[in-house]
Amino acid sequence: MSIVRTCKTLVNTSLLAGEKGLDNVIEKIVLLDDMRAGRTCEHGFFIVGGWIPESSNKYSQDLNLLRKAFSAGVAGVALQGDLPLELVRLADEYNVPLFHISSDQILLDILFALNSEIKANESGLYSSFSPFADILLSDGDIEHILWALRGEIHCGIAYRDLIHKKLFVASHSDDFKEHVKIYPLKEVIRLHQHMEVRVGGVLSGYLILNRSSRSDRKFSFYEMTAMENAVIAVKLSIEKKLSTQQVERNYIDEFVRDLIYNKMQRREELDSRARTFGWNPTNGVVVVSIEVETKSGESGERELQVFFSTIRSKFLAFFPKSIYTLLTKSIVFLVSPPEPDNGIKSLETNLLKVAEQLNEEVERELHCQLVVSVGGYKSDPLNTHESYREASRALRVAHLSPQRQKIVFWDALGAMKLLSIVSQSHEASLFCHKVLEKLIEFDSTTNGELLQTLRVLNKCNWNIKHVSDEMNFHYNTIKYRNKKICELLDFDPDDSDQRFDIALALKLYDLGSF
To answer: Are 298 and 358 in contact (CB under 8 A)?
Structure first.
């Protein structure tokens, strides 16, 4: 039996409220995430978890969950985050000890230590958590956790990981191994007794027993406790791995961004950091930028977030040694060809394949399209920022193309490549302002559309009828706009030199950032 007051794990946490309930008996540790997933709290349960910010739309739901838990007679609560005064008031009202876990403490360590302490104090009827604790303290391997559980309940067990699409099995039965490996998950959980594993309120996997779901045999209290202990151990293992992956992900993001934003000057530093992540840019670097575009031509930031995992998995299937970072509007991959010479050609071939496959999926699932832009090859990875700049310019060129391409290579842009470089110059800015300034000023004061009309006039070779059809405006409206444009720009459509200046100014204006 464990008393809240005597819990050593809680010594380094702050008691915010509920001092009158410090003699409550703790019977079981429950995760706040499990409550969010629908688990009901009972008398003697102790709740541990992370509190969501007040800005979240689930804030009031969590508050109601804890209010019900308090009224059910839970032993106590330990939460991390900015706890509201309303929660403190409720804890005092129901005499439920409310502890605050500081941000410098690792929530998983508190949870693990608290659960271990509670289990250590329980009577011999309860399955011990110590076999799982030993595994978590060493390597946290899920398969080892399953074998420990099998030793407790004497039944083959498997875990189907939905996050990483993996299967772990602890069983001596070849039939069971083959069954859980080959059969669809839906069929497996229909035929076998199982338990859900949720992490962060999200279904993350299933513990599957080598026992028929039709069996009349019920779990003993001992077996049920052992399985619940195993579920907690699996959750802790997953959380720690996800936490480690997130830390590593942050370091990789920082590394990639330092390269593409030209914040790294020494090759020694680059090589050292690259080795840390198992990336070898010996054969040079090519930057690939992928952006989602909606049917309206806008950048699909939300769609990019939705489709991110698919883009990542497909791209890494073709280029497993590449590294990446997710920006606001695009995903940027750094690819090192397998060979510095012939590898470039095979790289282009594979990029075309992955662009085609990704576009098929994004069109089918989100009714959008991807624009894949590829910078030039750089033999020195310290020049990655140049390839990134070229990929960004290639993306701008792709947006201007009347026939949208699924993939744009900087080195294959021809004259547009030159214009893209020139568009960033001061001279280009002066030229654009000289040719287009009066028109741009007129649009800004009248909320007009003359600049866009000028683009279509230039595209349609100044044929007013064609422009009227494309813009879906009456012929006389386009005729009036054409006349106004000519007046503002002092422009003669029959003058080929002036028409060239207009066409050039429009391209430079759209390619630049004036």
So the answer is: no
Residue 206, both tokens? 């299933």
d(CA 231, CA 364): 37
Mean pLDDT, residues 77-101 taken together: 92
Residue type, 203: L
* Strand blocks (E) in 223-343: 286-293, 323-326, 331-335
Q: For 51-179, where are the E strands, in sequence order?
A: 76-80, 98-101, 157-161, 166-170
The reported pTM is 0.51
Given CA atoms 386, 303, 198, 35 in this order, what sign does their dihedral have? positive
pLDDT digits (tens, 9 = 90+) for 323-338: 999 998 899 999 988 7
Question: Span 277-297, mean pLDDT?
Answer: 86
Sheet holding 166-170, edge to edge: 166-170, 157-161, 202-212, 192-199
Would you place residue 200 in the very low, low, confident or very high pLDDT band (cuts 50, 70, 90)? Answer: low
Indicate the burial class of 17 (C-beta count within 10 angstroms; 0-12, 13-18, 19 or more).
buried
Exposed, middle or buried: residue 445 (CB in 10 Å: 0-12, 13-18, 19+)?
Answer: exposed
Question: Exposed (0-12), middle (13-18) or buried (19+): which is 29, by Cβ within 10 Å?
Answer: buried
Sign of CA dihedral 147, 153, 157, 161: negative
CB 299 within 8 A of CB 422: no
Q: What is the DSSP letter of 128?
A: P
Instruction: Look at the block and give the residue holding tokens 């790294």.
Output: 264
Can you tell me the distance from the alpha carbon of 15 to that of 99, in angstroms, rounded to the nearest whole number?
Answer: 4
Q: Which residue has the tokens 């010996």?
A: 282
Residues 480 and 491: their CA atoms lie apart, in Å, by 14
Q: Between the CA of residue 66 and those of 16, 25, 35, 45, 60, what are the distances in Å? A: 15, 18, 9, 12, 10
Q: Which uninterrupted H or E stretch holds 186?
A: helix 185-191
Amino acid letter at 122?
E
Cβ contacts of residue 94 below 8 Å, gap of 6+? 18, 21, 70, 71
**Single-letter code of the amino acid located at 204:** S
Q: Distances in Å between the alpha carbon of 85 and those of 54, 91, 216, 246?
A: 11, 10, 49, 31
Encoded tokens for 373: 């832009």
Query: Which pLDDT score is estimated for 73?
Result: 93
In this structure, the number of other CB atoms found within 10 A of the CB of residue 11 comes to 7
Distance from C-alpha of 320 to C-alpha of 257, rounded to nearest angstrom? 19
Taking residue 497's Cβ as centre, other Cβ atoms within 10 Å add up to: 8
* Token digits of residue 251: 């370091």
Task: Return the number of other C-beta atoms located less than 10 Å from residue 232's C-beta.
Answer: 23
**Average of per-residue pLDDT values in the chain:** 84
Tokens of 307: 């489709």
Average pLDDT rounded to a whole number, residues 105-132: 68
- Measured between alpha carbons, how far is 228 from 68 in angstroms, rounded to an integer? 23
Rg (CA), the chain: 31
Give CA angle at 66 (60, 72), nearest 5°.
140
134: pLDDT strictly greater than 80: no
